[in-house]
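Annex B. Sample input.
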Amino acid sequence: MYCYIIYTLFFNSFASRVYFQHFCLEKEGLFPEFMEVKSAEVSSSAPLQKEKQVHDNLRSHPYILDCYGEETTTTKNGRMIYNILLEYASGGTLSSLIKQFDGCGLPESDVSTYTRCILEGLHYIHGNGYVHCDMKPENVLLVSDENGDSFVPKIGGFGLAKRYLNSKRMKFDPNFGGTPLYRAPETVMDRIQEPLCDIWALGCIVLEMLTGQNVWNLKPNMETDEIFGKIKNRYEMPKIPTHISKEGKDFLKRCLVRNPKFRFTAEMLLCHPFVSGSDDDLNNDADDELSDSSFSEPEESSDDERVNCSPLENDADDELSDWSFSEPEEDYPTCWRDDRVKIKRMKFK
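Annex B, continued. Sample output.
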Protein backbone atom coordinates (compact mmCIF):
# COMPACT_ATOMS: atom_id res chain seq x y z
CA MET A 1 0.00 0.00 0.00
CA TYR A 2 1.29 3.46 -0.86
CA CYS A 3 0.66 6.46 1.37
CA TYR A 4 0.68 9.83 -0.35
CA ILE A 5 2.24 12.44 1.91
CA ILE A 6 1.51 16.06 1.08
CA TYR A 7 3.79 18.60 2.74
CA THR A 8 2.19 21.99 3.35
CA LEU A 9 4.24 24.29 5.55
CA PHE A 10 3.21 27.92 5.27
CA PHE A 11 4.99 31.12 6.23
CA ASN A 12 4.23 32.11 9.80
CA SER A 13 5.92 33.60 12.81
CA PHE A 14 7.54 30.29 13.73
CA ALA A 15 9.19 29.15 10.52
CA SER A 16 11.18 30.76 7.75
CA ARG A 17 11.09 28.10 5.06
CA VAL A 18 8.25 26.92 2.86
CA TYR A 19 8.41 23.90 0.65
CA PHE A 20 5.97 21.52 -1.00
CA GLN A 21 6.81 17.93 -1.76
CA HIS A 22 4.87 14.93 -3.00
CA PHE A 23 6.23 11.44 -2.62
CA CYS A 24 5.11 7.88 -1.92
CA LEU A 25 5.93 6.04 1.27
CA GLU A 26 5.28 2.34 1.67
CA LYS A 27 3.66 2.04 5.10
CA GLU A 28 1.25 -0.80 4.74
CA GLY A 29 -1.67 -0.62 7.13
CA LEU A 30 -0.23 2.17 9.28
CA PHE A 31 -1.66 5.32 7.71
CA PRO A 32 -4.60 6.37 5.52
CA GLU A 33 -4.03 6.73 1.79
CA PHE A 34 -3.58 10.52 1.98
CA MET A 35 -2.04 12.62 4.72
CA GLU A 36 -0.93 16.19 5.20
CA VAL A 37 2.39 16.87 6.89
CA LYS A 38 3.26 20.10 8.69
CA SER A 39 6.99 20.54 8.96
CA ALA A 40 9.58 22.83 10.50
CA GLU A 41 13.26 22.70 11.24
CA VAL A 42 13.85 21.04 14.60
CA SER A 43 15.38 24.24 15.98
CA SER A 44 12.12 26.15 15.38
CA SER A 45 9.61 23.31 15.82
CA ALA A 46 8.37 24.11 19.35
CA PRO A 47 4.92 25.28 18.13
CA LEU A 48 4.51 22.10 16.06
CA GLN A 49 5.55 19.92 18.97
CA LYS A 50 3.05 21.76 21.14
CA GLU A 51 0.36 21.20 18.50
CA LYS A 52 1.16 17.48 18.52
CA GLN A 53 0.85 17.41 22.32
CA VAL A 54 -2.56 19.10 22.19
CA HIS A 55 -3.73 16.55 19.61
CA ASP A 56 -2.54 13.75 21.88
CA ASN A 57 -4.46 15.16 24.84
CA LEU A 58 -7.65 15.78 22.88
CA ARG A 59 -7.47 12.45 21.05
CA SER A 60 -10.05 11.75 18.36
CA HIS A 61 -13.24 13.74 17.77
CA PRO A 62 -15.47 13.92 14.66
CA TYR A 63 -14.95 17.68 14.29
CA ILE A 64 -11.26 17.96 15.19
CA LEU A 65 -8.55 17.23 12.62
CA ASP A 66 -6.93 13.85 13.28
CA CYS A 67 -3.22 13.57 14.01
CA TYR A 68 -1.54 10.28 13.06
CA GLY A 69 1.87 10.78 14.61
CA GLU A 70 5.20 12.54 14.30
CA GLU A 71 8.59 11.86 12.77
CA THR A 72 11.97 13.51 12.37
CA THR A 73 13.70 13.40 9.00
CA THR A 74 17.04 14.62 7.67
CA THR A 75 17.43 16.45 4.37
CA LYS A 76 20.24 15.84 1.88
CA ASN A 77 22.17 18.81 3.24
CA GLY A 78 21.89 17.53 6.81
CA ARG A 79 19.06 19.72 8.15
CA MET A 80 16.82 17.97 10.67
CA ILE A 81 13.09 18.43 10.03
CA TYR A 82 10.31 17.78 12.55
CA ASN A 83 7.02 16.59 11.00
CA ILE A 84 3.53 15.91 12.30
CA LEU A 85 1.21 13.74 10.22
CA LEU A 86 -2.33 15.12 9.93
CA GLU A 87 -5.61 14.21 8.33
CA TYR A 88 -5.74 15.39 4.72
CA ALA A 89 -8.33 18.11 4.07
CA SER A 90 -9.10 17.72 0.38
CA GLY A 91 -11.63 20.57 0.50
CA GLY A 92 -9.08 23.11 1.66
CA THR A 93 -10.00 25.58 4.37
CA LEU A 94 -13.20 27.37 5.28
CA SER A 95 -11.44 30.57 4.23
CA SER A 96 -10.91 29.28 0.70
CA LEU A 97 -14.56 28.21 0.52
CA ILE A 98 -15.76 31.67 1.57
CA LYS A 99 -13.60 33.26 -1.15
CA GLN A 100 -15.23 31.06 -3.78
CA PHE A 101 -18.50 32.93 -3.22
CA ASP A 102 -16.93 36.27 -4.27
CA GLY A 103 -18.01 38.26 -1.24
CA CYS A 104 -21.64 37.14 -1.32
CA GLY A 105 -21.56 34.72 1.61
CA LEU A 106 -22.54 31.07 1.85
CA PRO A 107 -26.17 29.89 1.88
CA GLU A 108 -27.49 30.25 5.42
CA SER A 109 -28.40 26.56 5.60
CA ASP A 110 -24.76 25.66 4.93
CA VAL A 111 -23.57 28.22 7.49
CA SER A 112 -25.87 26.68 10.09
CA THR A 113 -24.52 23.18 9.38
CA TYR A 114 -20.87 24.26 9.50
CA THR A 115 -21.45 26.29 12.66
CA ARG A 116 -22.98 23.30 14.42
CA CYS A 117 -19.93 21.18 13.62
CA ILE A 118 -17.49 23.88 14.77
CA LEU A 119 -19.46 24.35 17.98
CA GLU A 120 -19.35 20.62 18.70
CA GLY A 121 -15.58 20.74 18.30
CA LEU A 122 -15.21 23.82 20.51
CA HIS A 123 -17.43 22.30 23.19
CA TYR A 124 -15.15 19.26 23.24
CA ILE A 125 -11.98 21.38 23.32
CA HIS A 126 -13.26 23.53 26.19
CA GLY A 127 -14.55 20.48 28.04
CA ASN A 128 -11.02 19.06 27.99
CA GLY A 129 -9.55 22.18 29.56
CA TYR A 130 -8.17 23.90 26.45
CA VAL A 131 -8.68 27.25 24.74
CA HIS A 132 -7.92 27.20 21.01
CA CYS A 133 -6.77 30.87 20.97
CA ASP A 134 -6.61 31.12 17.16
CA MET A 135 -10.05 30.32 15.80
CA LYS A 136 -10.37 31.65 12.25
CA PRO A 137 -11.58 30.35 8.86
CA GLU A 138 -8.03 29.30 7.93
CA ASN A 139 -7.99 26.90 10.91
CA VAL A 140 -11.24 25.18 9.95
CA LEU A 141 -10.37 22.40 7.49
CA LEU A 142 -12.83 20.75 5.10
CA VAL A 143 -12.40 16.97 5.13
CA SER A 144 -14.21 14.72 2.68
CA ASP A 145 -16.84 12.51 4.29
CA GLU A 146 -16.94 8.73 3.94
CA ASN A 147 -19.05 8.89 0.79
CA GLY A 148 -16.87 11.54 -0.81
CA ASP A 149 -19.82 13.71 -1.81
CA SER A 150 -19.56 16.44 0.85
CA PHE A 151 -17.11 17.98 3.30
CA VAL A 152 -16.99 17.96 7.09
CA PRO A 153 -15.50 21.04 8.82
CA LYS A 154 -12.84 20.14 11.38
CA ILE A 155 -10.86 22.37 13.71
CA GLY A 156 -7.08 22.39 13.30
CA GLY A 157 -4.20 24.77 13.94
CA PHE A 158 -3.58 24.09 17.64
CA GLY A 159 -0.14 25.73 17.75
CA LEU A 160 -1.37 28.52 20.06
CA ALA A 161 -3.80 26.42 22.13
CA LYS A 162 -3.33 26.53 25.89
CA ARG A 163 -4.66 25.07 29.09
CA TYR A 164 -6.92 27.18 31.23
CA LEU A 165 -7.96 27.01 34.87
CA ASN A 166 -11.68 26.76 35.48
CA SER A 167 -12.00 29.74 37.80
CA LYS A 168 -14.66 32.36 38.42
CA ARG A 169 -12.00 35.06 38.14
CA MET A 170 -10.52 35.81 34.75
CA LYS A 171 -6.76 35.45 34.65
CA PHE A 172 -4.28 37.87 33.09
CA ASP A 173 -2.18 36.02 30.50
CA PRO A 174 1.17 37.58 29.56
CA ASN A 175 1.62 35.13 26.65
CA PHE A 176 -1.54 35.77 24.70
CA GLY A 177 -1.64 35.27 20.93
CA GLY A 178 -3.90 34.71 17.98
CA THR A 179 -4.86 36.44 14.74
CA PRO A 180 -5.67 40.11 15.52
CA LEU A 181 -8.87 40.27 13.43
CA TYR A 182 -10.52 37.52 15.49
CA ARG A 183 -9.35 38.49 18.97
CA ALA A 184 -11.96 39.17 21.62
CA PRO A 185 -12.11 42.59 23.33
CA GLU A 186 -10.94 41.17 26.67
CA THR A 187 -7.89 39.69 24.94
CA VAL A 188 -6.89 42.99 23.35
CA MET A 189 -7.70 45.17 26.37
CA ASP A 190 -6.91 42.93 29.36
CA ARG A 191 -4.81 40.08 27.89
CA ILE A 192 -7.33 37.45 28.91
CA GLN A 193 -7.70 34.25 26.87
CA GLU A 194 -10.36 31.87 28.10
CA PRO A 195 -12.97 29.69 26.35
CA LEU A 196 -15.31 32.63 25.75
CA CYS A 197 -12.62 34.25 23.60
CA ASP A 198 -13.11 31.34 21.18
CA ILE A 199 -16.85 32.11 21.14
CA TRP A 200 -16.20 35.71 20.07
CA ALA A 201 -13.97 34.36 17.29
CA LEU A 202 -16.71 31.93 16.31
CA GLY A 203 -19.12 34.85 15.94
CA CYS A 204 -16.59 36.52 13.64
CA ILE A 205 -16.33 33.33 11.57
CA VAL A 206 -20.11 32.93 11.29
CA LEU A 207 -20.52 36.56 10.23
CA GLU A 208 -17.82 36.07 7.62
CA MET A 209 -19.54 32.96 6.29
CA LEU A 210 -22.86 34.82 6.04
CA THR A 211 -21.55 37.98 4.39
CA GLY A 212 -18.31 37.02 2.66
CA GLN A 213 -16.63 39.96 4.43
CA ASN A 214 -14.40 40.05 7.49
CA VAL A 215 -16.01 40.97 10.77
CA TRP A 216 -14.84 44.60 10.79
CA ASN A 217 -15.01 44.99 6.99
CA LEU A 218 -11.37 46.06 7.01
CA LYS A 219 -8.94 46.38 4.14
CA PRO A 220 -6.50 43.46 3.77
CA ASN A 221 -3.38 45.54 4.50
CA MET A 222 -4.68 47.37 7.55
CA GLU A 223 -2.16 47.64 10.36
CA THR A 224 -2.59 45.64 13.56
CA ASP A 225 -2.86 48.81 15.64
CA GLU A 226 -5.80 49.97 13.53
CA ILE A 227 -7.56 46.65 14.04
CA PHE A 228 -6.98 46.79 17.77
CA GLY A 229 -8.31 50.35 17.80
CA LYS A 230 -11.65 49.13 16.46
CA ILE A 231 -11.78 46.24 18.90
CA LYS A 232 -10.98 48.51 21.85
CA ASN A 233 -13.61 51.09 20.88
CA ARG A 234 -16.47 50.24 23.22
CA TYR A 235 -18.96 52.10 21.04
CA GLU A 236 -18.11 50.22 17.85
CA MET A 237 -19.43 46.74 17.17
CA PRO A 238 -19.55 44.41 14.16
CA LYS A 239 -22.42 45.09 11.78
CA ILE A 240 -25.10 42.44 11.43
CA PRO A 241 -26.80 42.55 8.00
CA THR A 242 -30.57 42.69 7.85
CA HIS A 243 -30.98 40.02 5.17
CA ILE A 244 -30.19 37.06 7.45
CA SER A 245 -32.82 35.24 9.51
CA LYS A 246 -33.83 36.29 13.01
CA GLU A 247 -32.21 33.10 14.31
CA GLY A 248 -28.95 34.07 12.61
CA LYS A 249 -29.08 37.59 14.01
CA ASP A 250 -29.81 36.33 17.50
CA PHE A 251 -27.02 33.75 17.33
CA LEU A 252 -24.48 36.43 16.38
CA LYS A 253 -25.69 38.66 19.19
CA ARG A 254 -25.07 35.85 21.69
CA CYS A 255 -21.48 35.49 20.44
CA LEU A 256 -20.45 39.09 19.78
CA VAL A 257 -20.91 40.46 23.28
CA ARG A 258 -18.15 42.77 24.51
CA ASN A 259 -18.54 41.69 28.12
CA PRO A 260 -17.62 37.97 28.29
CA LYS A 261 -19.78 37.57 31.41
CA PHE A 262 -22.83 37.80 29.15
CA ARG A 263 -21.45 35.86 26.19
CA PHE A 264 -22.95 32.41 25.60
CA THR A 265 -20.79 29.31 26.06
CA ALA A 266 -20.40 26.61 23.42
CA GLU A 267 -22.77 24.36 25.37
CA MET A 268 -25.43 27.06 25.50
CA LEU A 269 -25.07 27.88 21.80
CA LEU A 270 -25.56 24.23 20.84
CA CYS A 271 -29.18 24.66 22.01
CA HIS A 272 -29.71 27.76 19.89
CA PRO A 273 -32.29 27.36 17.09
CA PHE A 274 -29.82 28.64 14.49
CA VAL A 275 -27.86 25.39 14.85
CA SER A 276 -30.42 23.09 16.48
CA GLY A 277 -32.98 23.43 13.68
CA SER A 278 -35.79 24.49 16.02
CA ASP A 279 -37.18 27.96 16.58
CA ASP A 280 -39.14 27.03 19.72
CA ASP A 281 -36.60 28.82 21.88
CA LEU A 282 -37.03 32.17 20.17
CA ASN A 283 -40.12 34.31 20.62
CA ASN A 284 -42.45 34.48 17.65
CA ASP A 285 -42.11 38.22 17.66
CA ALA A 286 -38.42 38.94 17.02
CA ASP A 287 -38.81 42.61 17.83
CA ASP A 288 -40.17 41.85 21.30
CA GLU A 289 -37.31 39.44 21.93
CA LEU A 290 -34.66 41.94 20.96
CA SER A 291 -36.23 44.81 22.87
CA ASP A 292 -36.15 42.74 26.09
CA SER A 293 -32.58 41.58 25.67
CA SER A 294 -29.30 43.20 26.47
CA PHE A 295 -29.09 44.56 22.94
CA SER A 296 -30.93 47.50 21.42
CA GLU A 297 -31.83 48.21 17.81
CA PRO A 298 -30.36 51.28 16.11
CA GLU A 299 -32.47 54.39 16.38
CA GLU A 300 -32.01 55.18 12.70
CA SER A 301 -32.82 52.70 9.95
CA SER A 302 -29.86 51.44 7.92
CA ASP A 303 -28.78 48.51 5.81
CA ASP A 304 -27.11 46.94 8.80
CA GLU A 305 -27.81 46.36 12.45
CA ARG A 306 -25.23 46.90 15.15
CA VAL A 307 -24.83 44.84 18.26
CA ASN A 308 -25.38 47.26 21.12
CA CYS A 309 -24.22 45.93 24.46
CA SER A 310 -22.62 47.18 27.62
CA PRO A 311 -18.90 47.95 27.31
CA LEU A 312 -16.28 45.90 29.03
CA GLU A 313 -15.40 47.64 32.28
CA ASN A 314 -12.54 47.03 34.67
CA ASP A 315 -14.86 47.05 37.68
CA ALA A 316 -17.23 44.11 37.24
CA ASP A 317 -19.29 45.05 40.30
CA ASP A 318 -20.09 48.50 38.90
CA GLU A 319 -21.14 46.99 35.62
CA LEU A 320 -23.34 44.32 37.17
CA SER A 321 -25.16 46.99 39.12
CA ASP A 322 -26.59 48.24 35.82
CA TRP A 323 -28.31 44.95 35.08
CA SER A 324 -31.47 43.33 36.37
CA PHE A 325 -32.21 39.66 36.00
CA SER A 326 -35.36 37.64 35.53
CA GLU A 327 -35.90 33.96 36.20
CA PRO A 328 -35.73 31.64 33.16
CA GLU A 329 -38.99 30.57 31.60
CA GLU A 330 -39.96 26.93 31.96
CA ASP A 331 -39.44 26.15 28.28
CA TYR A 332 -35.97 27.70 28.21
CA PRO A 333 -33.35 25.09 27.23
CA THR A 334 -31.64 23.54 30.24
CA CYS A 335 -28.19 23.97 28.71
CA TRP A 336 -28.74 27.73 28.53
CA ARG A 337 -28.76 27.82 32.34
CA ASP A 338 -25.46 27.48 34.16
CA ASP A 339 -23.63 28.97 37.11
CA ARG A 340 -22.53 31.94 35.02
CA VAL A 341 -25.82 32.84 33.33
CA LYS A 342 -29.08 31.89 35.02
CA ILE A 343 -31.37 34.03 32.91
CA LYS A 344 -33.06 34.13 29.58
CA ARG A 345 -33.10 37.88 29.24
CA MET A 346 -30.85 40.61 30.55
CA LYS A 347 -32.26 44.12 30.61
CA PHE A 348 -31.28 47.53 31.80
CA LYS A 349 -33.11 48.94 34.79
